[in-house]
Amino acid sequence: MFTSIDEKKMQLDLKRPLPKHTLNSLREKMLLEWTYHSNAIEGNTLTMNETKVVLEGITVGGKTMREHLEVINHRDAILYVEDIVQKNEPFSEWQIKNLNRLVLKGIHDDYAGVYRDQQVLIAGAQHTPPPHFRIQEEMEEMMNWFNCDAQKLHPIERAAKLHAIFVGIHPFIDGNGRTSRLLMNLELLKAGFPPIIIKIQNRLAYYEALDKAHTTKNYDDFIHLIALETEASLDLYLSVL
């Protein structure tokens, strides 16, 4: 599954360091589209152009304060992901809580970065997240998996399964989807891949693959979906170099 992707990554690696202005323009494009699509998947109604305007510090009429905060917060969370990668910090629960804290800043301050204390359901999914009293245990199991068995996996498979396992636990009251996609891209960036974007147009396939992973423990469809998006990001980078 990963042969052609690895070959394209090798092509990209051979072109490093990337030209400064090209890299900056790619980063700005990915930051905008990542923020727009990740928020749109969760119901944010700002368009791509409106998201761009909000990132530039301008308020869009007729849109809620929450929708504006979701854009700014997601941008700040991406900057935090980039900082983790640059500093080569080891993965930790503290980072996960910080990401969720950034995502929910000014929206749900009481619950931002704090594991939930009540049961939640995932709309439209057959999977039911674990009760709140099992969250700490399941998060510790996820971290143990990540530090041991996950390190033997291809980075794309590791990133995809981390996303799926985390969002299946659904440890926070809100922001789990955005946090899971940030965690997935954190892993991809650490491995030298460009970030990927789950597009709003692919939301149904994305949700169905996640629900299948949670209810059957078969992650193949979800890993395949993430692999396709990784290849698409590599193609974008290679096309402009």
Automatic annotation (TrEMBL):
Molecular functions per Gene Ontology: ATP binding
A Pfam family: Fic
Fido domain span: 91-228
Highest taxon of the lineage: Bacteria
Site (Important for autoinhibition of adenylyltransferase activity): 42
Keywords: ATP-binding, Nucleotide-binding
Binding site for ATP: 174-181, 206-207
Alphabetical list of PANTHER family matching this protein: FIDO DOMAIN-CONTAINING PROTEIN, FIDO DOMAIN-CONTAINING PROTEIN DDB_G0283145
Name of this chain's protein: Cell filamentation protein Fic
